Amino acid sequence: MTGAPGIHRHEHEHASAVHRHPHHHAGSAHEHRHGTGFEQLTYLVSPVHDLDPRSKTVATIVLILAIVLTPPVRPFEFALLVVMFAAVAAISRLPIATLFARACVVLPVAGTIAAFAPVTHSGGSLSVGGIAGAYAGGGWIAAWAILSKAWLCALATVVLSATTPVPRLIRGLEALRVPDIFITLFSFLSRYVDIFRAQLRSLRIALDSRAPTMGRLGRWRLYGNLAGNLFVRAYDRGERVHAAMLSRGFDGTLPTAETLRFGAGDILLLALVAMTATAVALY
Amino acid sequence: MHIPDGMLDTKTVASTWAAAVPALAWAVRDVRRRMTDGRLVLMSVMAALVFALQMLNFPVAGGTSGHFAGGALAAILLGPWPAVLVVTAVLFVQAFFFADGGVTALAANVLDMAIVAPFVGWWVYSLAVRVSDTRGGRTAGAFIAAWTACVAASLSAAMLVWASGAAPLLPVLGAMGFWHAIIGIGEGFVTAGLVAYVLAVRPDLVRGDARTMSARGLAGSLGATALAAAALSFLAYRRPDGLERVAAELSFLQRAEPLWTESPLAGYTIPGITGDALAGILAGLVGLTVTGLLTYTALQAFRRRRAVS
């Protein structure tokens, strides 16, 4: 592997799929890290992964607006959207079932509220008439509307987050004029949350291994101490990080290695999404 | 509870964005003015910490579990406006990167969890510290603050769901309030435990940073809360029509039954003034003024008593 020092990207085969990561070449050493689980999907190489994060973000928001604004999604519209997302997933070489399953995280919350709908529609009465009787249709339609819209919108963001590495997504948001304070917050969030999670996990393992007989209640009582310990560590880490940033010439702006290019594919995506969104919202 | 897309109707989505965007703009302005780059980096690391702490979950009942949310904690550690930004950033990342909470519902989630929770939490904590500025007082204050913030956030989420016509008011308020009163205990234990631990280990981190609110601030924020509540009630006053519209459009019902002919604010009309909207706004303003005066009087009395003792 030839390589000048510094960070750059190149493709490589891994686990029977082509990936592309930011690589760091220091002398002859070739280092890179593979993300775990879902994050791994964002480093696949596909036409959709190559699109500009700005157009993907805008397309996702437009699609979600259309789904939210439309009256209850009709079976035809639902099928159209599912087929469209499945096509995007296929072009992106993403496992469709994983995406569909991941979008299901919204169903418990949406389902709870959807369960109210049939009852609500009968004027709040719990009589059978409201659930299965003459007036039931509207209530069940309303429940379906809540569930289907929540799932489809979640699917849209899942496709976005599966085809765009987080640094590129943040870079796109920056280019879309999201205030710089939020860009800083997002960057640090995505950078440090896994570290703190790992620390929290090791604190819990330490607690479990030193108090194997302690009941769950006792353990929850100690959560505050774990959190406090983590807070003190995070505070110190924050100060260290800032000192390190200053020593590297931090001037209040976060530099980025991500370059954005708005190409023909992006125009195609936006045109397709505009047509789909119009069809869903207006018909 | 993260509200997903598709649950809130258009008028609620529009209203929540109209309310959240100015609040966020103010938060950005406040943080930019007050914070040095170093504090900003620290605040951002704290955002990652709050997100990581949401791993702490506690089963509530029968398979469901609640997790730590951290609105009150962020406000106690950083002050309310930075907390607004921190929790907003967490919600944004959850919505866009994890499909947890909707994109159009982001403003509603921001209102509940990034504005109501930190401000209510900070307000309660400040009150507790005013009553007793000891380690015990601050710990107890943190517990009550986190619990109250959790319940308040859930109730405001319930109000938004109700305003959208997705659920009847009392059941949704009751269900959300009941479960979050239980989840709030976990939230309170984590928050209070953290505050107690940090007070024992590094008291400078808690005492130095979180400036608690002045009496004027307490009164002002209560006024703002009352204003928000009035606005929300006014929003609710327009009878939810989402489901009926659905029913009418699909012609599923031969005759659309009015869902809530009597909303709680339906009686809030002022004699002699015609026009529901105008009366609603006036009712809100009158309520606000009365609440503000009562708060101010109470605080004055409280301060005078403190001055005497």
How would you describe the overall organization of this protein?
The complex is a heterodimer of chains A (283) and B (309). Chain A is globular, with a radius of gyration of 24 Å. In chain A, helix 3 (53-69) crosses helix 9 (166-175). The model of chain A has no long low-confidence stretch (mean pLDDT 82). Chain A contains 13 helices and 3 strands, in the order βββααααααααααααα. Chain A has 283 residues and is mostly helical. Chain A has a 3-stranded antiparallel beta sheet, with no helix packed on it. Chain A has helices at residues 38-41, 47-50, 53-69, 75-91, 96-103, 107-121, 128-131, 136-163, 166-175, 180-210, 216-221, 223-247, 264-282; strands at 6-14, 17-26, 29-31. Helices cover 66% and strands 8% of the residues of chain A. Chain B is mainly alpha-helical and 309 residues long. Chain B has a single domain (10-308), classed as Arp2/3 complex 21 kDa subunit ARPC3, CATH 1.10.1760.20. Chain B has 11 helices and 2 strands. In chain B, strands 1-2 form a two-stranded antiparallel ribbon. In chain B, a hairpin with a 2-residue loop joins strand 1 (57-61) and strand 2. In chain B, helix 3 packs across helix 6 (135-163). Classes of the chains: A mainly alpha (283), B mainly alpha (309). The interface between A and B is large, with 90 and 82 residues.
